Amino acid sequence: MKKISRILMCASLLLGFTACSDSDSGDDGDNGNNNGTQLAAPVLAQSSVEETAFTVTWQAVEHANVYAYSLDGGAEATTSETSARLSGLNPGTEYTVTVKALSTDSKYTASDAAQIKVTTLAEDTSGMIQSAEFDALVGSWAGKQTVKYATGIDPAGGFFYQTEEWTFDVDIMAQVGSRKYRKENYLICLGLGDFEKEGSARTYEQLIEEGFTVARALEGFGPKWFLKLLEDGSIVVEATTKFNVLSWFTTDELGPVYLLGGADDKAFSDCECELPVTVAGDELRVGSTVIAEKTWTPSLFQWHPKQGAYARYCLGVSDIVLTRKK
Q1: CA–CA gap between residue 254 and residue 121 (Å, rounded)
Q2: How far apart are CA 28 and CA 129, in angstroms?
Q3: Is the CB of residue 263 less than 8 Å from the CB of residue 295?
Q4: What is the pTM of this model?
Q5: Pick from 107, 156, 169, 118: which is nearest to 325 by CA?
Q6: Is the distance from CB of 115 to CB of 44 less than 8 angstroms?
Q7: Interval 216-230: pLDDT, tens
Q8: Alpha-helical segments (H) within the chain
Q9: What is the distance between the alpha carbons of residues 155 and 262, in angstroms, rounded to a whole number?
């Protein structure tokens, strides 16, 4: 009986020794990294620094095929490129970017984090006209305009027309995703006629969510039009197609709508027409102008990609009148 007890005790000691040996060997390893080789940390540099954006670049790290980066300790993003563009930032502000090299090959482990501090450029407002009255136009407005539009072709020649009053909401703002427009002495007017019933209207935020760059989203969101502040303090609407040119529209989509000067002979203005704006209390009015003996009223024209031409969406019969919402 004593012999059996001694055998069991020895077996127990042997198992305990083996268990301790296995545990100890785990402590001497590399904390679950399977003794993989650690990648070198990327060497960072800055480039293309602007007021609201900059780029961080690095040389490719040997054996790395993915890089993780974050801004000011925020959520990580990954890229297979050797650069990252950060946008939507504040001017004159210091940011810290962290980058790590990664590999999908289990033989390599993540690099140490490399960091770089980048300060965006101070905001340049040298060309900006200061006007408290102009800035006070920012807010929500109720719009209305009497318009005339074609409803069909008249067999006797021409078209059948219908005249009616349109009502719509307009939000006037200094910027959407960027300080660009107010610095160039524009206020953005979001909302135009009944455009949301047709066409491919998208907000700036929707375009960003769809994967468009900030530059394209600023160009493409709409429907929008612009108030422009002149040096003498007067305000006009530039009746031009230079804004909102959606180069990414496919041919099966209706193109953007522009607020242009329209004449009764179906002609439209482009860059040579400024529609006068008057402000009295809580009312803002976009009026007509006379050029080359023609009266140009605030009218809507739409780009049709399939036709490669502009078509009149409606002819303004009256001024556009905005009333500030209380």
Answers
A1: 39
A2: 68
A3: yes
A4: 0.64
A5: 169
A6: yes
A7: 777 777 778 889 999
A8: 2-27, 132-135, 180-183, 204-209, 214-220
A9: 25
